[in-house]
Amino acid sequence: MTATRAGQTTETAQSVARWVTVLLATASAIVSSNIYCNQPLLGTAAAALGVPPGVLGLVPTAVQFGCAAGILVWVPAGDLLSRRRLILALTSVSALALVAAGLAQNVPWLVAASFAIGALSPIPQLVVPLAVALDGGVRRGRVVGTIQAGLLVGVLVSRTGSGWLAEWAGWHTVYWVSCVLTIALAVVLWRSLPDDPAPKGAPGGYRAVMASLPRLLARPLVWRITVSGALVGISLGAFWTTLTFLLEQDYGLGAGVVGLFGLVSAVTAVASPASGRLADRVGHRRALAALVGLVLAGWLVLWPGGQVLPWLLVGVVLLDVGMWGSQVICQAALFTLERATHNRLNALYFVLRFSGIAAGSSIGSLAWSTGGWTAVVLTGLLTGVAALVIGVSARTGAAPSGTQLAVAAGRD
Q1: Helix (H) or strand (E) holding 261
Q2: Which run of H or of E encompasses 251?
Q3: Which GO CC terms are listed, alphabetically (predicted)?
Q4: Residue 252's domain is classified under what CATH number?
Q5: Is residue 232, in this structure, part of any structural domain at all?
Q6: What's the whole-model pTM score?
Q7: Is 4 among the domain residues?
Q8: In a domain, 205, yes or no
Q9: What is the pLDDT of residues 244-287, one digit of tens each?
């Protein structure tokens, strides 16, 4: 009877963990849509504000640098404070940043609001360690993949829907709709998200948590994974920023059609859990090599895509699946380290990742202005090769034991 009750308790706990994972995946979807909804709007907003399209490349750059800053400030606190309270507070305040973007009438205003949107949106980076902890870490790769699938659904809806909405009701409307959805999310999370007591593994307070970041980054596995992620991020930022320019200027397509390219995220969302299972099955090095290899294959296919639309479509699928799949692998690799440091590890990874995306947005715009699509593709290939070499050289060990966790928590 005792064994039966224990089995029932385990089943109930797993059921709750799955339900919370779905809820957190939904939160990631809505928040990620706030981050990426600007991409199909660049051409339309530039015309409305009377500036060249390249100037609006500052908007995604500001969002991504804001994300990096927000992750650096807020996510490490998840190893010290209640993640539930952090998630609720950030979700609520981010609605105000969306209001500011909806009221923007010039480029500096829009750029400042975009930075605030990014800085208040590290929700996916907080929910992943929470979901892994609630699941017990047994299905680490699968949980990370599920959360990222939710994030990618948000990217899909924002890239596809925001372009059509901008053509139909103006680009400001996109931010107002995002604001309403964010407020609704905050209400649902307040009512439904389980309480998450403050972790006990970070003595010394917030200052000690932040001071431990350089030591964590100095670990060979951590710096190789984070640098590899940043390099893939450069590819990501360069591609999605310049794709708008390519489709509107060379193919003559409007914002609505540009947004349809976001449908590729549907394929990526399906592939993300599979990437997590691949990491669980064959190990992180092999899985990362396969996914970054897809990034390189995507850029090679995209080279003729500047003139041939079918090649462009195939290249987008390969590139996006490789980019987001490699992110699942990188996070799963970092989560083999001490659980008490997971929020800080996630913060380090995404600070570099979003810094890479932000740099890629600017580098991509510069490459487009100086050398057109060929220069953009060469940028993607060079960063992809570097990401492959650095990332595959990272080795992971077995997940640490409970004793190791306690020792490491005190050390870091």
Answers
A1: none
A2: none
A3: plasma membrane
A4: 1.20.1250.20
A5: yes
A6: 0.73
A7: no
A8: yes
A9: 788 877 787 766 666 667 666 566 666 666 776 777 777 788 88
